[in-house]
Amino acid sequence: MQLYGPLLAGVVLLVIGIAVFASSQRKLKLRQRIERSWSTTTGQWIRIGKRVSLTSSPTSRDPDANAYLLDCEFTYTVEGKHYSSTTPLLYEPYLRHDIDTFLSKYKAGQSFTVLYDPYHPEKSVIETTLYGKSGKHQVFFSGLLMIIGIVLLISQAESVITMLSHQR
């Protein structure tokens, strides 16, 4: 019975690692496509700030213990038509530090560059990276999970083979 714990942990870590890797690859490819093929225009803030996420503890007194969401809206014009968006980033940040870093770069009333899809101008972002983070850290993390999962599976392979041979 002790065999199943590490075996199950190995399978779970391997599956989570594969899922995180696939997700990060989709984000990296989307970011590359946006940077390569989307057009730019100038945007203006309607509002910019942050709010505590609903998943945070309402009784927490430690601001770093909470998850945050950007609370912002910006406008931009493409070929004379006005658009607005509440999604300035390709990646959604939740850490207070990341949101504070974003808010320190942009101020109310400030103009900035907006990337928009020329075929669907209502789709837009301001930044495609998470404050200079390329998203490659997710690839590293997923690789680490997969390696640990494979090591756990290999370490239990002999025990599984022995157990199966005794059952026959």
Task: Provide an overview of this structure.
The structure is a single chain. The chain has 168 residues and is α+β, with helices and mostly antiparallel strands. It has one domain (4-167). The chain has 3 helices and 7 strands, in the order H-E-E-E-E-E-H-E-E-H. It has helices at residues 4-37, 96-105, 136-167, and strands spanning 39-47, 50-52, 68-70, 73-78, 81-85, 111-117, 120-125. It has a 5-stranded antiparallel beta sheet with strand order 5-4-1-6-7, covered by helices on one side. Strands 2-3 form a two-stranded antiparallel sheet. Strand 6 and strand 7 form a beta hairpin. Helix 1 (4-37) runs antiparallel to helix 3 (136-167). The protein starts with a helix and ends with a helix. The model has no long low-confidence stretch (mean pLDDT 82).
Structural class assignment = alpha+beta
Mean of all residue-level pLDDT scores: 82
What is the subunit arrangement here? single chain
CA radius of gyration: 22 Å
Q: What's the total number of strands?
A: 7
Low-pLDDT runs: none
Sheet with the most strands, sense and barrel status? 5 strands, antiparallel
Number of H- or I-type helical stretches: 3
Major beta sheet, strand line-up:
5-4-1-6-7
**Strand composition percent:** 15-25%
Distance between the termini: 18 Å
Q: Classify the helix fraction into a percent range.
A: 40-55%
Give the CA-based shape.
elongated
The H-and-E topology, N to C, reads as: HEEEEEHEEH
